[in-house]
């Protein structure tokens, strides 16, 4: 679409206020606060809208021309894609962790990246081994080998009388289909991001400009080939280990084992070779060889299935698929070792981070531990739900022939302990920090409302509670650290399954906790995982269908899919690869028409605009101003992504727009905050230089009692957009005046 010009007698508007919404995903009518809008550029997924001409009040404060960028369907879109985000959550978290690495380069940074990609590779292996545990271990081996389990189950009994090799070969098709599913999801056709990408800028690589500045398609394609090869090799290892159990390995089985080990070793080495994977320029030889590796792994799986079916000789006896439990335990132990090494590597690199709190830059090992814990929890729950079905209602902790491996029992018990301890720690932290937060809130309210009337006492207490709750955001980091440490410890305890130690027996022996209570915790933990998964599914559906609900659950999706896929190729695609270049092109077009542009971003929209400003050419930045509100730039992003959002990056943003930047923030906001300095009465002095005038603190609420023209007091805005707030309009007018002082620019197109 193209813009519809107004009539020739209209005075041209020289300032365009381009509004970008946050995670709430509001429609353009709500963003513009105008009931009649039309689309001027983009499509149904991401588009630019303006008030429809011919209606009154089509301009904003200070006579600016209003325009909105709607991007809410880029990270979510259809319900099917929203649900896929739930099931791909471990992959998304694993990909998110690699972007949280400390600042700096060299051996330490390369080591952190390599460890992140190795852990991402283990997430794929956990996914495959869980599906194999259901189909090969529980169904093909345990249930089909038990007449009691097969009784009354015609959907299984047709294969139950067949040899073990045939049962395993037939049901191995399910893990193959599971690999094909994530393969398809990660490579499905979507937007051609290259059509949105603009020219490269001169900003440094280790900044927010890394988002959408370089083409990630080659990297994702290379990682995908490696992960698919590793997935098939993991399945091959489970089948060949069972076939060779008891010293019955033939020459063909041994040869396939060697080839499988070679494929896995090649995958491990390749994910660590960053220059080979990260090059954005075409590398036909490299890509061709990686595709050959993937094809070889697929053919190797076909050969393994044939050998499993056709090779004569008895199979090793046992209640479970031979060596399956040991493979699961080894995989969990490998993740534990990699997490420990990753934490040490981050601590090694962290001194290069200038200043900041002690917990800064620990996001990589923390979120990676959460990703590993989520992957293990998903896998354990899948195995246990199927085991419950096969056990005909017997307790999940019972020692039955169809029970899952002990490693999964320990994993679920560790999850239950981790969630319980983290919840208790959260309550303790809330109670312990409550007095300090309430005192700080009371001081803020007293300064904001020194002459509050007596009848406003209840309203004062309400505002104090809101501010105190909002300040709990800074207390969340220790809780995440606690859960991450327990998740890593839970992975380590899975090794106890090798000694055939049951959680109830061990805990009962070394702690005054009855074994029955431990078994109850395992069962409860399993249902907690199921409830969490169901909650995420319902949250994804409601987030898709209910924009208001999206404000609460959309933060996770929009944060996770904002960053390109650099660690795990099965993570959801990055919407910023379209949104940022699209914004850049639109802004360049508007300034090329002789107009100036006031960029107004709320919440996560301010992150998109910050990345956009860093990619705009200097001549475009010279005609741009920036208005952010509810922005998590410093409060969240600078804390968790120190290599990409830090003081240097924030100052560069200010310098690029000539310090025509105003950031609006409120003490009642639990997500957004100040960028450079709070500028709060009685607080620390403002930042030096022009950065000191960027942050405008908004008193919230504006009043405690109802004004004469209203029947209720002004609302507590918290994190909601405030485009109708008079103080927001004042900021728009000031920035618009600064832009008009620049004078008209010559049209270039």
Automatic annotation (TrEMBL):
<feature type="transmembrane region" description="Helical">
    <location>
        <begin position="522"/>
        <end position="544"/>
    </location>
</feature>
<feature type="transmembrane region" description="Helical">
    <location>
        <begin position="410"/>
        <end position="432"/>
    </location>
</feature>
<keyword id="KW-1133">Transmembrane helix</keyword>
<keyword id="KW-0812">Transmembrane</keyword>
<feature type="transmembrane region" description="Helical">
    <location>
        <begin position="361"/>
        <end position="380"/>
    </location>
</feature>
<feature type="transmembrane region" description="Helical">
    <location>
        <begin position="293"/>
        <end position="310"/>
    </location>
</feature>
<feature type="transmembrane region" description="Helical">
    <location>
        <begin position="165"/>
        <end position="183"/>
    </location>
</feature>
<keyword id="KW-0472">Membrane</keyword>
<feature type="compositionally biased region" description="Basic and acidic residues">
    <location>
        <begin position="725"/>
        <end position="741"/>
    </location>
</feature>
<feature type="transmembrane region" description="Helical">
    <location>
        <begin position="118"/>
        <end position="144"/>
    </location>
</feature>
<feature type="transmembrane region" description="Helical">
    <location>
        <begin position="330"/>
        <end position="349"/>
    </location>
</feature>
<feature type="region of interest" description="Disordered">
    <location>
        <begin position="678"/>
        <end position="749"/>
    </location>
</feature>
<feature type="transmembrane region" description="Helical">
    <location>
        <begin position="249"/>
        <end position="273"/>
    </location>
</feature>
<protein>
    <recommendedName>
        <fullName>Integral membrane protein</fullName>
    </recommendedName>
</protein>
<feature type="transmembrane region" description="Helical">
    <location>
        <begin position="479"/>
        <end position="502"/>
    </location>
</feature>
<dbReference type="InterPro" id="IPR029058">
    <property type="entry name" value="AB_hydrolase_fold"/>
</dbReference>
<feature type="transmembrane region" description="Helical">
    <location>
        <begin position="79"/>
        <end position="98"/>
    </location>
</feature>
